[in-house]
Task: structure prediction
Amino acid sequence: MESKKGYSKPGEFKPMDLLACAAAREVKDGEIVFAGTGLPMLAIMVAQHTQAPTAVCIYESGSIDGRPIDLPTSVADARCSYQAAVADGLTDVFGQLQSGKVDLAYLGGAEVDLYGNVNCTFMGGPTGKRLTGSGGNSDIHSLAKRSVLIMPQLGQKRRFVERVSYITSPGWKIPHWPDKEWVPKQQVYGPAFNGGPAAVISDMGVYRFDEQGEMYLDTVHPGFTPEECRENCSFELNIARCQGETLTPTYEELDLLYQVIDPEGIIMK
Amino acid sequence: MESKKGYSKPGEFKPMDLLACAAAREVKDGEIVFAGTGLPMLAIMVAQHTQAPTAVCIYESGSIDGRPIDLPTSVADARCSYQAAVADGLTDVFGQLQSGKVDLAYLGGAEVDLYGNVNCTFMGGPTGKRLTGSGGNSDIHSLAKRSVLIMPQLGQKRRFVERVSYITSPGWKIPHWPDKEWVPKQQVYGPAFNGGPAAVISDMGVYRFDEQGEMYLDTVHPGFTPEECRENCSFELNIARCQGETLTPTYEELDLLYQVIDPEGIIMK
Amino acid sequence: MARPKVVSLTEAIGQINDGDMLTFGGFTVWRRPMAAIYELIRQKKRNLHLVEVNGGTHDDMLVGAGCVGIWESSWCGHELYGKFGSNLARRIEKGEILYEDWAHIHILNRLTAGAKGLPFLPTYSAMGCDMLNPENDNLGKAGLRNGSNPHIGKHKYMMYKEPFTDSEIVLVPAANPDWCITHVQMAGNEGTVRVEGLKFSDQEVIKASKHNIIITEQIVPEEYLRREPTRNMLPGYLVDYIVELPWGAHPTGLYGVHEPDGEFIADFFKATRTQEGFDQWAEEWIFGVKDFQEYLNKLGISRLESLRANPALGYSSTMKRGSR
Amino acid sequence: MARPKVVSLTEAIGQINDGDMLTFGGFTVWRRPMAAIYELIRQKKRNLHLVEVNGGTHDDMLVGAGCVGIWESSWCGHELYGKFGSNLARRIEKGEILYEDWAHIHILNRLTAGAKGLPFLPTYSAMGCDMLNPENDNLGKAGLRNGSNPHIGKHKYMMYKEPFTDSEIVLVPAANPDWCITHVQMAGNEGTVRVEGLKFSDQEVIKASKHNIIITEQIVPEEYLRREPTRNMLPGYLVDYIVELPWGAHPTGLYGVHEPDGEFIADFFKATRTQEGFDQWAEEWIFGVKDFQEYLNKLGISRLESLRANPALGYSSTMKRGSR
Result:
C-alpha cells in the first residue's frame, strides 16, 4: 500500500467513497458547518480528521460541535451530543444560521437544477410524487454562506434538470413572489443575502456555479468523461470549464471512512 | 395574644406591615404572580403561606416558583432560584407574560395617576428628576391580567396625581401614539389586552378602579379617614365608594413577616 | 390551576376532541409520544389539524389511521428507517388530505410566535421557494381562510417591506394548537418537567399550546428536580395532565434511556406502502392490543432491553447497527 | 477562526475603540464584568454607545467616568444598594448625555433581533407609554437618525398594523453591538462557556454582538464542560477573547461564587451624588490601583471571603444582611 497521504487508484475505492471525500475537501479549517444526516455527516467528519481539525459541526436538532465516537444515524441521534459544546435546540441553531454564522452547509436533495435550486418535496411538482419535504434544507440553503449538495447522478438524469419541478431550497436564481419574476437570489434576499450553492457533488463529478449562477462541470470523477456527465443531465451542461479529474480518496481518507468514522458499516457498507 | 388567625389592633403593627398584608390578600390560590424587589416579594410570600399555597411567583430575571428559605434582596438574587421549578432568563418569562399567562403582578412606582398610569422614570417629566427608568415595570403593567401597585402616600401627595408627568407603565387610559389621543387601554392593546391595574395599596388605604378606569378609595387603613386619603392626593379622589376599614394584619401574618419570611430584618426592620 | 392532574393515558387522550389542532414534542424519530399516538388512533379521533415543526413516524401513523384532516409541517419521514412518510405521501398524491408545506424556520416561528403571544414573527428563510408560491396556499385554495376555522388565519404568510433596512421579509402567522403532547424523561409530582439531551423545539411548541399533556418515563419528587432548576424546562402550571408511562416513546428514541427501534420503524414503513398494509399493521400493533401495556408485552422484554442506552454514553453501546 | 484567544484583560479591552457600541452580560447588580469596566475607565475610552437590556452599577460608573456618549436601556440603578444611577441621572438632567429609554421587552427584543439576524422584532409591550412618545425620540431630535452613525437606525420604532389579526404592534429595530463583555463562572480552554444560575439575557446579547469578550472565574478543561453539553451556553466560535480573572465581577454578585458587595455599592452610590464625589471614588478605586489584582489586594481577603457563597445554597449563609 502507498503512503497514507497518497491517492488511491481506480478500483481501490467505491463511488460513494469518492463522493464523501470530494465533499470533505470543501471544508476549510475553522469553518462553521451545518450538516444533514448520512453522507454529509461523513464528509464533515473526514474533513475534521484531515485539513479542518477546528471546523465545527452544527446539526439542526440543536447540537453544536459534537465529537461523536460512534457514527450518528440522524441529526437528533444521542451520538451527536457526545462531547458537544452545546446541546440545546432549533431556536439556537437556526438563529445562528440566520445571523450569518454558518460558513458551509452540506445537504442532499432529490432534484437539482441549472441554478442550484433543490427539490426534496415533490418529484414532478405538487401533483407528482411526494417526498419528505424541506426539513431544514430550505432554511440552510437560504441562509448559509456556501452550500454543498451531495446527490446521486449516474443513470438518474431526471435528478439534474433545467428547472426543478418544485423549489424546496433556493439556488442562484429564484422567483420573486408574488410577481413570479425570476431574479438573482441576492436581489430577493437583500441585506439577508449570505451566499448560495458552492458545489454539487455527485457520483460522476464536481459541479460549481459560474458568474451567472449557472452550473458547470468543474472536475470529472475518474472513470467518467465530461460528456458522460452531460448525458446524465437533463439540461445542456457546460463542460467547457472542466479542470480535469477529481482527486481520488487518499488511503488515509479511506481508512478514516471505514475504520474510524463508520467502522460499523452503517453508511459505508 | 389572640388566636393566630385574629386581626391585630392599631399599635400592634407598623404601616409597612399593613401594606404588605393588604397586598398579600390580592393573590388567589393557584395564580401566577410576577413580583418585583422589596415589598412585592414579601406580599407574595405572605400569600403563599396563607390563602394561596399553590400560587407561583415569577421574577423577571428568569426564576420561576422559587422556594427561598432566605429573603432575596433583588429579583436576580441567588436566593430566588432556591428550589425553583425553572431558572432560565428574560426571554422565557417575558414571553410567558406577553402570552397572557400572568394573573397578577406586584410593582412599585414613584408616581401614580387617576387612571393607574405609573411613573418611575422622571419626576416632572423628561426635564425633571431622573429615576431608574422602567425595568420590567412597563412590560408587566402592559401585559399582566391584574397589577397591584404598592406605593407610599402619607405626606407625599405629589406621588398621587391627576396625570403622571411621564408614563412609564400604562393604566386604564393612555395616549394612542402618534396621534396622542387619550383612549382606554383596551383600544390601544386590541387582541393583546389582558387587563390592567387592579389596586393601588398605600400606607393610607386600598384604591381600586371604577368602570371608567378611574381610581377610588376602596378601604381606608385604620387610623386614617377617607378625607385624609383624599388630602394626600393631588387630584379629587373619589371616596364615595369606600367600604370601610382595611383589615389589619393577622397575628399569623405578622409572625410570618417577622419570623418566617424576613427574620433577618432586611425589609421588615 | 397551578398544578397538573396525574391521570391515565386513556383519560388524558379522552380530553382531545375531533377537529382539535395538535402538535407534539420531539424531533423526527426522537422522543415522540408514541403511546399517545396509539391511543389517539384507538379512540378514533377524526379531522385533527396537525401543526408540527417536523413530522415523523407518529404523524404518518395518525394520517394512515384517518385521524388527520389538515397537516402543516416542514417534513415527514422516518430518518434512515424509511424514505418518507408513505401514508402522508399517498393521501397527498390522491388529494385525500389538506396540507401546507413550510420551511423549518417558518413553522418554528409560527409556534414561537404563538408561545410569545405575538401575531407573527419575521424570517428571511425560504424566500423564492415554492412553500411561499401563492399557488401553493392550499388552505386558501380550499376556501378555509375565510374565518370559519379559528385555527386557520387570513393569510398563509405576508411579504413585508420592513421600514428599518428596507428589506423584504416573510411574516408567518402565530399558531396556537389546542394540545401539545410531549414525552419526557422526568416530571415532578407538582409538574416540573425536565428533558435530558436536546430540547429540540419543545419549549416553543408547549408554550404555544392551550393545553399540555406530558407523558413521562417516571414521576419523581419535585424536590429532586428543583435542586437544579437550570436543568428544568417547564414549571407545572404550564402542564394540564401528566401521564407516567415508561417506554411510552417506543419505537422512537429517548436520549439516555433507549434507542429508536429502527427495525420496528422500517417494518412500519414497508407496511405503509399501501393502505391495506398499514391497516394490517395497525390491526396487529394498535387495535390488536388492549393498551400500551399489552403492546409492550407483545414487543417483549428482550427486544426492549436491546434498545437500552448505556448511561455513560446516552445511547446503546451493544446494539447492532451496520453491516459490519 | 473557530477558537478564541486567551489574553490579559488589558489586551482584551485594548481592542475596543472610542465610539464603539457596547453591551454586557448579567442583570442589574449580578454577574457584571466589573474588572473590565474598571479597565475601560483606566484606558479612558470615550464616546461609547451603551445598549443594555438593563443597566446597573457598571453603567453608572462608565457614565461617571465620562466614557459614555449614548445610553440606551430600560433601567439604571443599584437594586437595594442605591436608589438610582446617580451619575447617569445627573448627566441626563444636565443634558450632558444622549439617551433613549425603553421597556425591558423592547430592548431585549432589539438585541434578540440582532442575535437572530433579523431587522426587527414585534412586541405589544409599553404601548401608550412615554418611551414610545415620538417627542421622546432623543437620538432623532439630536439629528442622529440620518444614517451617519451605523449604530443608529432611521426609526426609534414603528407602529405596525399587522395583517393577521389587524392589531397594532410595536416593531423595534435590531441592535448589534460591536462588543459584549460577559463575566461567567467557567470557560473551557477551547472557549465553550458555562453560566451557573440564571442566564438572564446573556445568550441574546452575546449572539447579537460582533465581538465577544468572556471573563471567567476559571478556565477549565473542555472535556469537563462537554460531559454535559445541555448545561453550556455558548460554543467557542462565538467568543473572540477569553480572560481568566477570579473575582472579576466584584462588587456585583456571582451565583454560586459570591454575593454582591452591597456595602461597596452603597458607598459608591453615596459618593456619586456629586461628580466630585465620583471622581474621588474613582481616584481611590480605579486610577489609584495599577490593575485589578491591586484592587483585590486593597479590598483584602477578609472582605472578599465574607462574600463567599455556601456551595449548597449558591449564596452566603453567614453574611449579615438585615437589622436583626
